[in-house]
Amino acid sequence: MENDLLKKVRKIEIKTKALSHQVFAGEYHSAFKGRGMAFSEVREYQYGDDVRNMDWNVTARLRAPYVKIFEEERELTVMLLVDVSGSRLFGTTTQTKKDLLTEIAAVLSFSASINNDKVGALFFSSKVEKFIPPKKGRSHLLRIIRELVEFQPEDPGTNIGAALEFLTNALKKRCTAFLLSDLIDVDEARKPRYEDALKIAAGRHDISVINIYDPRERTLPNVGLVHVRDAETGRSSWVNTASANVRRSYEDWSREAADNALSTLRRYRIDTVSIATGDDYVKGLISFFKNRA
User: Among 63, 70, 95, 100, which residue's Cα sits nearest to residue 83?
Assistant: First the structure.
């Protein structure tokens, strides 16, 4: 069992680390800026240099024009907020939402590491299940990937607000946070239950959302009478998918919930990308990075 787990972790490491080096590292660097510019050195003035960067003390001492050179203060703290609720195990294509989420989280982790950023993770269901403080190093990244692969939550429910509140309280300094979730956390009016927590967290941190979903969560096929079970509440029932009204009602609920989530994210200027199971997430992430840059 342990050998099987190590093989899975190693397989994910090889694939996602290669993608991070070959595809994402530059895009990530451009999309997620450092904290500002830090002084690096002085050098002799060259034609075209900004005169506002003149170092007058050095210029006077050496009797030749010198300018200050600045470099981007790059190091970031990256937090992965990972939805481990029961619905992540759903999948009707070549993979489950958990499989897709794990690969994307690993790619983000390695991309951050290549750029010398610290990475941490927060696993949440209806509560915060596990918090891994941000650190650097290969062994630390492998620990995060291992948890992505094998972590078993105590509760199957979803409370995105609890994760965002924890982030706000746990990290006092500004960080870059990725929320990886299907965003299925709405009230009876199909409105996000996490808006207040999101508003506060977005005011302190740079938050992006990777919305992971399965196509069958948005449309129902006509396959007759089927028995379905809610992975988070445990409730089950029979659904007549042959009914056009049933399929339309299902699609209306899903569309309205997704639209409400998107409008909430836009309200707080949060960048987001939606990626379906079975899709090429490389294209989705590259597009997302470029839109941020």
Answer: 100
